[in-house]
Amino acid sequence: MAAGADAADAIAAAGTSMSVSYRMGKLEDVERSEGTDLGIRAMVKGADGAMRQAVVSLTDTSGPALDEAVARVVAMAKIAPDDPYCGLADTARLAKEVADLDLDDHQEPDADTLAKWAEAAEKAALDVDGVTNSMGAGAGWGRSRVALATSDGFEGTYSASSHSVSCSVLAGEGTGMERDYDYSSARHLSELDTAEEVGRKAAEKAVKRLNPRKMPSQSVPVIYDPRVSGGIVGHLAGAVSGAAVARGTSFLKDRMGQQVLASGLSIIDDPRIIRGRASKPFDGEGVLTEKLALVEDGVLQSWIMDTSSARQLGLETSGRASRGTGGPPGPSTTNLYLEAGSVSRDDLIADIKQGFYITELIGMGVNGVTGDYSRGAAGYWIEDGEITFPVTEITVAGNLKDMFLNLTPADDLTFRYGTNAPTLRIEGMTIAGA
């Protein structure tokens, strides 16, 4: 402000991480990284009263470097193009205190411990009959700290830890080999799956995929396994992003207050889940984070907005600003999930005569403007209500507007990722195969 800005904010992100990888019983890599990044945003009013903004980022936080960065960001803001929507968040929306969401367990496994986890995961996988090669196993740990300050008086900081174990293996021989994987990640070490469990699951999945068949093109019900079903929820989130709606590039831009899912279904974004994978006590602008229903009883209720996109839409921020050190805030989700249904996975499948159970998706064939959806997929064929043989080289296609309205969730919702959904059934999908 002393350098000539009319408003400003700064965000610092410090991170420490360590990872270890094993392959075929041998240690491959041990990596550790530590760093601190700082982002400074300055906003300056032009002669016509329009606001302009600029951002600089740096890793050198010494006095001379900071002085130079401040001078540079203010100078840049003065010549930046007008942005009538930029600016700090309304002070009435700022978090008054930083809630403790128990995101940091303050544990730091050493390299030897991580190596033992990686070794144990791969060994458990290689011990499963049918597994013939390994793409490697890994274990990791990390801690991040975020601090945000604004010229309107907000100051807040929080830290979060992460722990992970992963394994990827091959089953079969020659041209008949199949790959699969498993992993576990958690904020707290006590909630991490054991390395042996991760390795065994990866191996069992790979063996189960051996001798896949190709299926003819047809229209069938499709089941999305929980490890891929979150992608469907993610596509809806992308379509209700305030930035996309403001640009007019979303196929749901005119659907506020209308039915977009079947009655009874709700999609929730909750940044305050204790130990949540994407939890945070305040957003990238210092706004208090609160639970938000994007869709309630099938009806679209809210856009995902930061302050800028909200102003473009003539609304108020929904407290969903995401921020890095290299640019201004933008809208993003936190712990996003589709609420569980009332039927089991088996009951969801029981009446399907012919269908496709998806465990892996390939490619990004989604048109955010029209809602057209086309993805490569692999998984298992369903016959007479039972999951039977593996299938591969399938393309599954439809339109997201129709898919959302013909979606049925099972009751097996678990929170493993930042975006989660239970097993999903979608009627009338087109599959293109042999």
Structure, explained:
By secondary structure, the protein is α+β, with helices and mostly antiparallel strands. The protein has 2 domains: 7-208, PmbA/TldD fold; 212-434, no CATH class. It contains 8 helices and 19 strands. It has helices at 63-79, 111-126, 195-208, 226-239, 242-247, 307-312, 345-349, 400-405; strands at residues 7-23, 26-45, 51-58, 131-150, 155-171, 178-186, 218-224, 267-269, 292-296, 299-300, 321-322, 330-331, 336-338, 354-366, 372-383, 386-399, 407-409, 419-420, 424-432. It is globular, with a radius of gyration of 24 Å.
Summarize this entry quickly.
This protein has 434 residues and is of the alpha+beta class. Helix content is 19%, strand content 39%.
Radius of gyration: 24 Å
Please tell me the total number of domains.
Answer: 2
Strand order of the largest sheet: 3-2-1-4-5-6
Largest sheet: 6 strands, antiparallel
Which key terms come to mind for this protein?
single chain; 434 residues; alpha+beta; PmbA/TldD fold; 2 domains; six-stranded antiparallel β-sheet; five-stranded mixed barrel; TldD/PmbA_sf
Please render the helix and strand layout as text.
Blueprint: E1 7-23, E2 26-45, E3 51-58, H1 63-79, H2 111-126, E4 131-150, E5 155-171, E6 178-186, H3 195-208, E7 218-224, H4 226-239, H5 242-247, E8 267-269, E9 292-296, E10 299-300, H6 307-312, E11 321-322, E12 330-331, E13 336-338, H7 345-349, E14 354-366, E15 372-383, E16 386-399, H8 400-405, E17 407-409, E18 419-420, E19 424-432
Parallel strand pairs: 7-14, 13-18
Antiparallel strand pairs: 1-2, 1-4, 2-3, 4-5, 5-6, 7-19, 8-9, 8-13, 9-10, 11-12, 14-15, 15-16, 16-19, 17-19
Helix pairs in contact: 2-3
Domain Metalloprotease TldD/E central: 107-210
GO biological process, one term: proteolysis
Protein name: TldD/PmbA family protein
